[in-house]
Amino acid sequence: MKKPVKITQTIYELNEMYPEFKEAMIEAGFEKIANPKMMATVGRFMTIEKGATMKDISLETIKEVFESKGFALINEEGDVL
Predict the structure, then answer these.
(1) Which of 37, 60, 61, 66 is deepest in the core (most CB within 10 A)?
(2) Are strands 71-74 and 3-6 parallel, antiparallel or unpaired?
(3) Residue span of the structural domain in which 31 resides
(4) Predicted confidence (pLDDT) per residue in 45-62, tens digit
């Protein structure tokens, strides 16, 4: 079973839940999140959804990377994307 990742939950919260989450984020195009200071500051309010918009990365691309790492992206209602 894949680990659920809510696209509206903060990057910091998801990283605390799943230590391997950060590697998936980096592979999906969020390289700066590798910096612990970025995770501790920006990560506390940034979500996958907001980050995708800011960096112009499609949710489909993020979904593919996350699925390959054992995660399932879900929306606020809990539906798998």
Answers:
(1) 66
(2) parallel
(3) 3-73
(4) 999 999 999 999 999 999
